[in-house]
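Explain this fold:

***
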Amino acid sequence: MKIKSQKDFFSGLMFLGIGIAFSWGATTYNVGEGARMGPGYFPLVLGIVMCILGAIMTLKATIVATEGGDPIGKWAWKPLFFIIAANLAFGVLLGGLPSIGLPPMGLIVGIYALAFIASMAGENFKVVPTFFLATALAIGSYIAFIWALKLQMAVWPTFITG
């Protein structure tokens, strides 16, 4: 067996690995059935679909030849760092970090931080478009999570709302 597309082969393995993890994790929840789904139903189905897609991609990578073998490039460290940092910052700002005395900053501040930090992962960071994107995300998130779903979470920093 010769790998004819490295990108597709390793992408397929990644899909298989994540699909297996989702499926395995779903077994700890009640799966239910199609008419009455339990909390484990969606992760189980998602994991199975990802496994199928991963198997197809991996198999295709050994059958269909690509020009030059479609080699894997080097790691994109800058985007990887900023995307992970943006998600960590969002989580910390949303819930606070009591161990260092940081109070919850709320949904709006967390979304602005998420948008600005994640946008630094790209090649050309621009403040004004990022501000408009963050504003649209903040408004949309407020409407979806606070107004429509009525989730109980801090919207603004605790020192503002009291």
Notes: DSSP finds six helices and no strands in the chain. The mean pLDDT is 90. Residues 30 and 143 are 31 Å apart (CA to CA). The radius of gyration is 21 Å.
